[in-house]
Recover the amino acids of this structure.
């Protein structure tokens, strides 16, 4: 049973399958965030937006890797970099969780809303009327877990997966050299 699971994980995390997997996961994560924001009016604070950066950056990197047909040796370094980005995102999510739970204070620029405007005057009026959500306000949760809490888990999972893919890419690169 365990060897069967290991064989499946080796195939899924092998290069280039892992790139396609990570691209799909990152796009789905960003689409979920956009649906929450624009479909359900769950507007992000600045910390929420910073937590999206590793997912967006990794999606772009994976797309470039597919288009440029990156080899396994280069994929190793890129996956390690992506893993570090996810760990940074997890750190931001942990910080955001602390702000939401009032364990510590947030940043001074801890709010942001999207602006919808057709002209300069519409933009000015929209900016004057904008009510910004603070980072310490929980705008959505499920079973007591906020989006920042869920992002800790998502970032940790993606950091582990990209690190595992890096190791798999390293093995693949060594096997092709021999």
């Amino acid at each position: 049973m365990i060897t069967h699971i290991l064989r499946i994980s080796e195939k899924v995390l092998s290069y280039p399958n892992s790139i396609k997997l990570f691209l799909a996961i990152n796009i789905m994560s960003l689409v979920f965030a956009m649906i929450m924001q624009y479909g359900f009016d769950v507007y992000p604070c600045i910390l929420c937006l910073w937590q999206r950066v590793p997912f967006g950056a990794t999606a772009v990197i994976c797309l470039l890797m597919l288009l440029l047909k990156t080899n396994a040796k280069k994929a190793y370094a890129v996956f390690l970099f992506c893993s570090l980005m996810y760990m940074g995102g997890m750190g931001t999510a942990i910080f955001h969780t602390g702000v939401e739970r009032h364990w510590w204070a947030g940043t001074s620029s801890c709010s942001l809303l999207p602006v919808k405007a057709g002209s300069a005057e519409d933009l000015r009026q929209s900016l004057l009327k904008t009510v910004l959500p603070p980072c310490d306000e929980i705008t959505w949760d499920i079973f007591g877990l906020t989006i920042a809490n869920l992002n800790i888990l998502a970032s940790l999972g993606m950091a582990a997966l990209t690190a595992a893919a890096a190791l798999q890419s390293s093995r693949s690169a060594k096997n092709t050299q021999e």
Observations:
- The chain has a mean pLDDT of 84.
